[in-house]
């Protein structure tokens, strides 16, 4: 995808994110956002070729990119893997904090069974992005195990966060920590996952 296309996508996204809390999430809203951004109406379809699905995929990609910008280029060596993962997930949620209604409507869009396979791929990509930043270089089946488990954590935590009204979303932070702890317990029960998933110094 060209840089020019990405710039158009980003401009339309930022405009749409301002409108979605008031106008809802629909393709018409995205088209209007393109027009408000100074483009012809058909430009929305040319940069988001699968309509709303492409727009929401890009929304997730944008959140991933903004997360990486907010995180240090590489985590400090003395930060445990589990803490790196928690930091990345939390940073992403903080970036999305101004767009919680858009995230809520996105989740509502993906809930339909026929859309879940695409949604799963999007969350998996976010998990992959986080694991790569955290320093994971596995190429065997552990790579898929790690990302699959983290995708579940991201999904559950995001859904919890959407309805969290606590100060600074502190309840979500605790929820996230507990979900990571649950993964460690799963690893202990299976006998091997703990060391493979979070390394030897995670407990």
Characteristic terms for this protein:
single chain; 203 residues; mainly alpha; 2 domains; 73% helix
What does this structure look like?
By secondary structure, the chain is mainly α. The chain folds into two domains: 1-49; 53-198, Tetracycline Repressor, domain 2, CATH 1.10.357. The protein has helices at 3-23, 27-36, 43-47, 52-70, 81-95, 100-110, 116-134, 141-162, 170-190, 193-198. Helix 1 (3-23) packs across helix 2. The radius of gyration is 18 Å and the shape is globular.
What portion of the residues fall into strands of 2 or more residues?
under 5%
- Count of DSSP E strands? 0
Quaternary class: single chain
Please tell me how large the radius of gyration is.
18 Å
Measure the end-to-end span.
42 Å
Secondary-structure-derived class: mainly alpha
Our count of helices gives 10
CATH topology of the largest domain: Tetracycline Repressor, domain 2
From the spread of the alpha carbons, the general shape counts as globular
| Mean of pLDDT | 90
Summarize this, please?
The chain is mostly helical. It has helices at residues 3-23, 27-36, 43-47, 52-70, 81-95, 100-110, 116-134, 141-162, 170-190, 193-198.
Element layout with pairings:
Layout: H1 3-23, H2 27-36, H3 43-47, H4 52-70, H5 81-95, H6 100-110, H7 116-134, H8 141-162, H9 170-190, H10 193-198
Helix pairs in contact: 1-2, 4-5, 4-7, 5-7, 5-9, 7-8, 8-9
């Amino acid at each position: 995808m060209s840089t020019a296309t990405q710039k158009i996508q980003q401009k339309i996204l930022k405009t749409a994110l301002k409108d979605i809390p008031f106008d809802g999430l629909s393709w018409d809203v995205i088209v209007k956002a393109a027009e408000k951004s100074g483009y012809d109406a058909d430009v929305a379809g040319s940069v988001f070729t699968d309509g709303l699905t492409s727009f929401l995929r890009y929304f997730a990609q944008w959140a991933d990119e903004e997360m990486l910008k907010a995180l240090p280029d590489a985590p400090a060596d003395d930060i445990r893997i589990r803490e790196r993962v928690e930091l990345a997930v939390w940073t992403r949620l903080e970036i999305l904090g101004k767009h919680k209604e858009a995230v809520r409507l996105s989740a509502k869009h993906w809930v339909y069974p026929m859309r879940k396979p695409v949604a799963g791929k999007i969350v998996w990509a976010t998990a992959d992005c986080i694991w790569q930043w955290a320093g994971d270089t596995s190429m065997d089946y552990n790579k898929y195990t790690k990302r699959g488990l983290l995708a579940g954590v991201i999904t559950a935590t995001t859904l919890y966060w959407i309805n969290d009204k606590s100060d600074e979303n502190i309840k979500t932070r605790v929820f996230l920590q507990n979900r990571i702890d649950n993964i460690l317990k799963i690893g202990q029960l299976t006998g091997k996952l703990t060391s493979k998933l979070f390394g030897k110094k995670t407990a």
